[in-house]
Design brief:
The chain is an alpha+beta fold. Helix content is 32%, strand content 23%. The longest helix is centred in the N-terminal third of the chain and has 19 residues. It starts with a strand and ends with a helix. The relative contact order is 0.18.
Length: 383
């Protein structure tokens, strides 16, 4: 029998301060790229009590009304009541916008990478979407929290919230859900109301999201629901939010490696974003081909240089052919230059706001082109 161990991942709702910042940055990017597909955008957002601050380097022929985008985004998330300490109508919107450096443009305009760096992609057979199970479940929990808030089914909920899921593994296989943590912002209530809230979250949010085959009646799932007690003050009133501060939530929940680059607010010429999407695309196609059960892909780039300086495939011993052979095949099957990635995944479109909450990977939505398994036959043919 393989050794057993626990692994934990977390996620956050769209109303978490860092995710508000990510969504604002990506909605500004989408508004610009819709008018100017060749734009260069690096947009950062800070949100705090009563204020959203936007700082960006943008090269574009487009014009967008940034304050109105910011307010619409905040309102859509659910911060539309002044009692929350942060709301769309009354928050200040401050902007500091400069042109992107011409020094960077010289290398990018010729098809080179917009920066140096290393990017990782990952896929495994743990779930139908080829994602690690802990992050997949953590995303489902916070998405359901937001759905129950927005449809009024749990009217005590407020926009901010977090989840955390601990899964027990036997070797590479998930065998049991061990612990679930849900912390959600809520309206003010007495102790009896708090207990009703915890019961409702357990029954209406947690139970529907957990696969029954991974619940062991003899070792019941441990629940921690708002373990500190009250969570009335949340969102930017309680904690400053910044773009790019949830990079593990955005990717694989701590499974595998991370190159350190954030995604939101960056146009696809930035390989932090586009090459990370490409690495996921490569990893998912290898796993979907049946040639490995678990794959991590590393890509690395030099600024202004088109071809990746390195490509690495690691199947953690699950590959049916040697890892070095996978690397050779991937270089033949995929064009991993920035321009090749952008063209193959059709990234010069306003598709990025949808990625800014609940993860960039493992979502089979039409615009998430990096989730396609369209290179399986080519990989198998070369293998």
């Amino acid at each position: 029998m393989a050794e057993r161990h626990l692994f934990t991942s977390e996620s956050v709702t769209e109303g978490h301060p860092d995710k508000i910042a990510d969504q604002i940055s990506d909605r500004i990017l989408d508004a610009i790229i819709a008018q100017d597909p060749g734009c260069r955008v690096a947009c950062e957002t800070l949100v705090t009590t009563g204020m959203a601050f936007i700082s960006a380097e943008i090269g574009t022929t487009a014009y967008v009304e940034i304050p109105s985008i910011v307010r619409r985004t905040i309102d859509g998330i659910g911060y539309n009541d002044s009692s929350f300490g942060f709301d769309a109508e009354t928050c200040a919107v401050i902007t500091s916008i400069d042109n992107q450096s011409g020094d960077i443009a010289m290398g990018v305009d010729t098809g080179g990478a917009g920066d140096q760096g290393l990017m990782f992609g990952y896929a495994s057979t743990e779930t139908p979407e080829f994602m690690p199970l802990p992050i997949s479940l953590a995303h489902k929990l916070v998405r359901r929290l937001s759905e129950m808030r927005k449809n009024g089914a749990l009217d005590f909920l407020r926009p901010d919230g977090k989840s955390q899921v601990t899964v027990e593994y036997e070797g590479l296989e998930p065998v049991r859900i061990d612990t679930v943590v849900v912390s959600t912002q809520h309206r003010d209530m007495d102790d009896a109301g708090m207990q009703r809230m915890r019961d409702a979250i357990r029954e209406e949010v947690i139970t529907p999201c957990l696969p029954k085959n991974l619940i062991d009646p003899e070792r019941p799932v441990i629940h921690h629901i708002n373990p500190t007690g009250r969570f009335v003050y949340g969102g930017p009133m309680a904690d400053t939010g910044l773009t790019g501060r949830k990079i593990i939530v955005d990717t694989y929940g701590g499974v595998g490696s991370h190159g350190g680059g954030a995604f939101s607010g960056k146009d696809p010429s930035k390989v932090d974003r586009s090459a990370s999407y490409a690495a996921r695309w490569v990893a998912k196609n290898i796993v979907a081909s049946g040639l490995a059960a678990r794959v991590e892909v590393q890509l690395a780039y030099a600024i202004g240089v088109a071809e990746p300086v390195s490509v690495m495939i690691d199947t953690f011993g699950t590959g049916k052919i040697p890892d070095v052979r996978f690397t050779e095949i991937i270089r033949k099957v995929f064009d991993l230059t920035p321009s090749g990635i952008i063209e193959a995944l059709n990234l010069r479109r306003p598709v990025f706001a949808a990625t800014a909450a609940y993860g960039h990977f493992g979502r089979n939505e039409p615009d998430f082109t990096w989730e396609r398994t369209d290179r399986i036959q080519e990989i198998q043919k070369h293998a």
